[in-house]
Amino acid sequence: MLTQVLDLVFPRRTVGSWMTDEEWERIPRRMRVEEGIDGLPHSLVSATHYHDFIVLRRAIHMLKYRKASSLIEWVGEILYETVGDFITTDTVLCPVPLHWRRKFDRGFNQAELLANYLSMKSGCTVSNLLKRTRNTGNQTLRCRSERLIAVQNAFAYRAKEVAPRQVVLIDDIVTTGATLNACSKVLMKHGVQEVDAWVVARG
Fold it and tell me: N or C terminus of the chain with fewer C-beta within 10 Å?
Protein backbone atom coordinates (compact mmCIF):
# COMPACT_ATOMS: atom_id res chain seq x y z
CA MET A 1 0.00 0.00 0.00
CA LEU A 2 2.80 2.42 0.91
CA THR A 3 4.56 1.79 -2.40
CA GLN A 4 1.33 2.59 -4.26
CA VAL A 5 0.96 5.86 -2.37
CA LEU A 6 4.59 6.77 -3.09
CA ASP A 7 4.07 6.00 -6.76
CA LEU A 8 1.25 8.54 -6.85
CA VAL A 9 3.25 11.25 -5.07
CA PHE A 10 6.62 10.42 -6.65
CA PRO A 11 5.99 8.48 -9.89
CA ARG A 12 8.75 5.92 -10.38
CA ARG A 13 11.15 7.46 -12.85
CA THR A 14 14.92 7.68 -12.75
CA VAL A 15 16.69 9.18 -9.77
CA GLY A 16 15.88 7.83 -6.34
CA SER A 17 12.96 5.87 -7.84
CA TRP A 18 10.51 8.76 -7.35
CA MET A 19 11.83 11.71 -9.31
CA THR A 20 13.11 12.58 -12.76
CA ASP A 21 16.67 13.54 -13.60
CA GLU A 22 15.42 17.07 -14.25
CA GLU A 23 13.78 17.33 -10.82
CA TRP A 24 16.93 15.98 -9.20
CA GLU A 25 19.13 18.59 -10.89
CA ARG A 26 16.74 21.38 -9.93
CA ILE A 27 17.15 20.76 -6.21
CA PRO A 28 19.45 23.61 -5.14
CA ARG A 29 22.65 22.51 -3.44
CA ARG A 30 24.20 25.52 -1.78
CA MET A 31 26.48 24.76 1.11
CA ARG A 32 25.45 27.08 3.90
CA VAL A 33 27.90 27.33 6.78
CA GLU A 34 26.85 29.12 9.95
CA GLU A 35 27.20 28.97 13.71
CA GLY A 36 24.64 27.39 15.97
CA ILE A 37 22.94 28.96 18.98
CA ASP A 38 25.58 30.31 21.39
CA GLY A 39 28.20 29.19 18.85
CA LEU A 40 27.26 25.50 19.21
CA PRO A 41 27.65 23.52 17.12
CA HIS A 42 30.85 25.24 16.00
CA SER A 43 29.77 25.06 12.37
CA LEU A 44 26.47 24.07 10.81
CA VAL A 45 26.47 22.94 7.19
CA SER A 46 23.18 22.57 5.32
CA ALA A 47 22.96 21.19 1.79
CA THR A 48 19.90 23.15 0.72
CA HIS A 49 16.94 25.10 2.02
CA TYR A 50 13.83 23.22 3.06
CA HIS A 51 11.45 25.60 1.29
CA ASP A 52 13.35 25.73 -2.01
CA PHE A 53 11.84 22.64 -3.59
CA ILE A 54 8.46 21.04 -2.96
CA VAL A 55 9.58 17.52 -3.91
CA LEU A 56 12.25 17.66 -1.22
CA ARG A 57 9.71 18.83 1.37
CA ARG A 58 7.33 16.03 0.45
CA ALA A 59 10.08 13.44 0.47
CA ILE A 60 11.31 14.40 3.94
CA HIS A 61 7.73 14.42 5.20
CA MET A 62 7.11 10.96 3.72
CA LEU A 63 10.38 9.71 5.18
CA LYS A 64 9.61 10.91 8.71
CA TYR A 65 5.87 10.61 9.03
CA ARG A 66 4.88 7.96 6.49
CA LYS A 67 7.70 5.53 7.27
CA ALA A 68 9.08 5.74 3.71
CA SER A 69 12.62 4.73 4.67
CA SER A 70 13.35 3.77 1.06
CA LEU A 71 13.64 7.51 0.30
CA ILE A 72 16.77 7.76 2.44
CA GLU A 73 19.04 6.93 -0.49
CA TRP A 74 18.39 10.06 -2.51
CA VAL A 75 17.88 12.31 0.52
CA GLY A 76 21.22 11.04 1.80
CA GLU A 77 22.83 11.58 -1.58
CA ILE A 78 21.94 15.28 -1.46
CA LEU A 79 23.84 15.56 1.81
CA TYR A 80 26.74 13.43 0.57
CA GLU A 81 27.16 15.57 -2.55
CA THR A 82 27.57 18.56 -0.24
CA VAL A 83 29.89 17.20 2.46
CA GLY A 84 31.51 14.17 0.82
CA ASP A 85 34.79 15.94 0.05
CA PHE A 86 35.23 16.79 3.74
CA ILE A 87 34.73 13.26 5.11
CA THR A 88 37.80 11.28 6.10
CA THR A 89 38.20 7.88 7.70
CA ASP A 90 38.72 9.73 11.01
CA THR A 91 35.36 11.48 10.78
CA VAL A 92 32.98 10.45 13.57
CA LEU A 93 29.29 10.93 12.76
CA CYS A 94 26.76 11.07 15.58
CA PRO A 95 23.08 10.94 14.56
CA VAL A 96 20.72 13.08 16.62
CA PRO A 97 18.81 10.46 18.65
CA LEU A 98 15.07 9.89 18.78
CA HIS A 99 13.34 8.92 21.99
CA TRP A 100 12.89 5.14 22.00
CA ARG A 101 9.11 5.45 21.85
CA ARG A 102 9.19 7.60 18.73
CA LYS A 103 11.78 5.34 17.14
CA PHE A 104 9.64 2.31 17.92
CA ASP A 105 6.59 3.98 16.40
CA ARG A 106 8.44 5.16 13.28
CA GLY A 107 10.52 2.02 12.90
CA PHE A 108 13.78 3.92 12.38
CA ASN A 109 15.65 7.12 13.17
CA GLN A 110 16.05 9.12 9.94
CA ALA A 111 19.20 10.81 11.29
CA GLU A 112 20.75 7.42 11.92
CA LEU A 113 19.85 6.28 8.41
CA LEU A 114 21.49 9.41 6.99
CA ALA A 115 24.65 8.85 9.04
CA ASN A 116 24.80 5.21 7.93
CA TYR A 117 24.40 6.29 4.30
CA LEU A 118 27.32 8.72 4.59
CA SER A 119 29.36 5.99 6.25
CA MET A 120 28.54 3.53 3.47
CA LYS A 121 29.64 6.05 0.84
CA SER A 122 32.82 7.15 2.60
CA GLY A 123 33.89 4.53 5.13
CA CYS A 124 33.76 6.92 8.08
CA THR A 125 32.59 5.93 11.55
CA VAL A 126 29.07 6.23 12.95
CA SER A 127 28.87 6.35 16.73
CA ASN A 128 25.63 6.66 18.69
CA LEU A 129 27.19 8.73 21.44
CA LEU A 130 23.92 10.24 22.64
CA LYS A 131 20.54 9.09 23.85
CA ARG A 132 17.34 11.06 24.31
CA THR A 133 16.27 10.71 27.91
CA ARG A 134 12.72 11.94 27.46
CA ASN A 135 10.23 12.42 24.68
CA THR A 136 10.26 16.09 23.73
CA GLY A 137 7.34 15.72 21.33
CA ASN A 138 6.97 17.32 17.92
CA GLN A 139 8.90 20.57 17.66
CA THR A 140 7.33 21.66 14.37
CA LEU A 141 4.73 24.08 15.75
CA ARG A 142 6.87 25.46 18.59
CA CYS A 143 8.57 28.82 18.55
CA ARG A 144 12.28 29.18 19.24
CA SER A 145 11.93 29.83 22.99
CA GLU A 146 9.59 26.84 23.38
CA ARG A 147 12.01 24.60 21.52
CA LEU A 148 14.88 25.68 23.73
CA ILE A 149 12.88 24.81 26.84
CA ALA A 150 11.70 21.49 25.39
CA VAL A 151 15.21 20.14 24.78
CA GLN A 152 16.75 21.20 28.08
CA ASN A 153 18.26 18.13 29.76
CA ALA A 154 16.70 15.94 27.06
CA PHE A 155 19.98 14.28 26.00
CA ALA A 156 22.60 12.21 27.78
CA TYR A 157 25.99 10.76 26.86
CA ARG A 158 25.76 7.02 26.40
CA ALA A 159 29.22 6.01 25.23
CA LYS A 160 31.66 4.27 27.58
CA GLU A 161 34.77 4.77 25.45
CA VAL A 162 36.95 7.88 25.43
CA ALA A 163 35.19 10.72 23.61
CA PRO A 164 36.44 11.53 20.09
CA ARG A 165 38.19 14.87 19.67
CA GLN A 166 35.77 15.99 16.96
CA VAL A 167 32.20 14.85 16.26
CA VAL A 168 29.78 15.72 13.46
CA LEU A 169 26.08 15.67 14.38
CA ILE A 170 23.78 14.42 11.61
CA ASP A 171 20.10 15.31 11.13
CA ASP A 172 17.63 15.86 8.32
CA ILE A 173 16.37 19.38 9.06
CA VAL A 174 17.41 22.23 11.32
CA THR A 175 15.20 25.22 12.09
CA THR A 176 16.11 27.08 15.29
CA GLY A 177 19.11 24.86 16.03
CA ALA A 178 17.91 24.19 19.58
CA THR A 179 18.28 20.41 19.33
CA LEU A 180 21.75 20.56 17.79
CA ASN A 181 22.80 23.07 20.43
CA ALA A 182 21.59 20.82 23.26
CA CYS A 183 23.38 17.80 21.76
CA SER A 184 26.59 19.79 21.30
CA LYS A 185 26.67 20.87 24.94
CA VAL A 186 26.35 17.27 26.16
CA LEU A 187 29.13 16.07 23.85
CA MET A 188 31.51 18.83 24.92
CA LYS A 189 30.71 18.27 28.59
CA HIS A 190 31.97 14.70 28.13
CA GLY A 191 35.23 15.57 26.40
CA VAL A 192 34.51 16.26 22.74
CA GLN A 193 36.55 19.33 21.78
CA GLU A 194 34.76 20.35 18.60
CA VAL A 195 31.22 19.63 17.44
CA ASP A 196 30.00 20.38 13.93
CA ALA A 197 26.67 19.54 12.32
CA TRP A 198 25.63 18.49 8.82
CA VAL A 199 21.97 18.54 7.79
CA VAL A 200 20.11 18.04 4.55
CA ALA A 201 17.99 21.16 4.79
CA ARG A 202 17.76 24.43 6.65
CA GLY A 203 14.20 25.30 7.62
Answer: N
